[in-house]
Known about the structure:
mainly alpha, 434 Repressor (Amino-terminal Domain)
Amino acid sequence: xxxxxxxxxxxxxxxxxxxxxxxxxxxxxxxxxxxxxxxxxxxxxxxxxxxxxxxxxxxxxxxxxxxxxxxxxxxxxxxxxxxxxxxxxxxxxxxxxxxxxxxxxxxxxxxxxxxxxxxxxxx
Length: 123
């Protein structure tokens, strides 16, 4: 199982879909039927010539019993870098009130950053 998970982490969405479908013992037609799609569309997804919609990704995740994140992202894309991970660990050891303050500070900085980023795109 660990080898299978390791293989999933270095694959594209198309490759993950093929691998998960086969692991579940589904044919392309069976997956298409479960997703309510035409067989041709599943073949396009697996070939990487078409990208699934959000609705299709959600149905795939439910059918294959995985998270949508595991279909879309490489694991390192979802994890903080080492410095942030250590800082988050330090915050998790703080009393609840101090954690609340740190979370508010972070939220304020994130909102400020996003607002600046979006305002610079509209110029």
